[in-house]
Amino acid sequence: xxxxxxxxxxxxxxxxxxxxxxxxxxxxxxxxxxxxxxxxxxxxxxxxxxxxxxxxxxxxxxxxxxxxxxxxxxxxxxxxxxxxxxxxxxxxxxxxxxxxxxxxxxxxxxxxxxxxxxxxxxxxxxxxxxxxxxxxxxxxxxxxxxxxxxxxxxxxxxxxxxxxxxxxxxxxxxxxxxxxxxxxxxxxxxxxxxxxxxxxxxxxxxxxxxxxxxxxxxxxxxxxxxxxxxxxxxxxxxxxxxxxxxxxxxxxxxxxxxxxxxxxxxxxxxxxxxxxxxxxxxxxxxxxxxxxxxxxxxxxxxxxxxxxxxxxxxxxxxxxxxxxxxxxxxxxxxxxxxxxxxxxxxxxxxxxxxxxxxxxxxxxxxxxxxxxxxxxxxxxxxxxxxxxxxxxxxxxxxxxxxxxxxxxxxxxxxxxxxxxxxxxxxxxxxxxxxxxxxxxxxxxxxx
Length: 447
What we know:
The protein is α/β, with parallel strands linked by helices. It contains 17 helices and 20 strands. The chain folds into 3 domains: 7-94, 3-Layer(aba) Sandwich (Rossmann fold), CATH 3.40.50.720; 98-305, 3-Layer(aba) Sandwich (UDP-N-acetylmuramoyl-L-alanine:D-glutamate ligase); 314-445, Protein-Tyrosine Phosphatase, Chain A (Alpha-Beta Complex), CATH 3.90.190.
């Protein structure tokens, strides 16, 4: 894409916006960065050094509307006034990922889904690195793709993509696309239409050809229904934990079986990641690794020594035989369902925060089977209390991580667990889910 002296405006100056500025500057665009909020000092410094023009806590309309191309942060909704004006004007609006794609021929392994994408992305990156491939990690995680394209010459990128990023991608192509699952999330951004959200996730397959691969969850009815309605010209590679897949991957009697480019098997007991949902993540990741011909031994080794991301079913400590687990990253009911599903001992469950319209009904069976007490950690807990009143005998309320951990320690016995898996956002008592997880871990360590 020819950028010489053309104006590019970057809206949002976080990791992706600053990365786009670096690449835009390097490829000869006239760059202007605008953030309606405050820009982090380290990012301000980087923009200063680049010598590009920037502003914060405002959007100067005439400068933005003069753009030939706009790159917007995934966090900015289409309903934002400045975006509406750009759309009326017919200005092209893209994501940082799309922009980076204009300037690289690297192979793209792209991962999306409502849940499990960070874990699958990290596991795949870990395996590619162990195989000695020249690989970068980017997207919704890690460093900006645009910045890596500008400064490093990776042959592969493992990208975690959110539906918001996919919405602003048009010409970009995944060589290997992975779709893990589709459950209702962020529907407020999709006019509360599930089909709009499904369409958004399926953008991961756009531009794929018969030389490319689409790895998908064959156990997810929303995905299989959508595939049957679309004419995809890509190699379809299903994975399942329920049924045999002759051209794909599946679980059979506690063995992962990956059937692509000759068979690979591995016992689930050798996996570093536990729980059924992680078996799905591992099948998807294993398929991607085999597609690029990574050796079976390397996959086996990577899957057994992988350390999961922080705040996602993270083992914190064992205190007097009680296991404390930090799953602060579970900000929706579906994520918490996975966490509870993987618990194999009686559990004291810490839940609550800012509710995004949660329906707790789908957790009832799991809670009945696994949870011995509930600790509500939020400012508004009535909905949780009402949902589980007849199901769990002991329900208490805590106003801080320290208080919640104190209750957990008293309510759990030896060989039981205390699980922080809030199913809610954290903004009522904490800065973000990381802060919530870190305060929980600090409280556990001071027991």
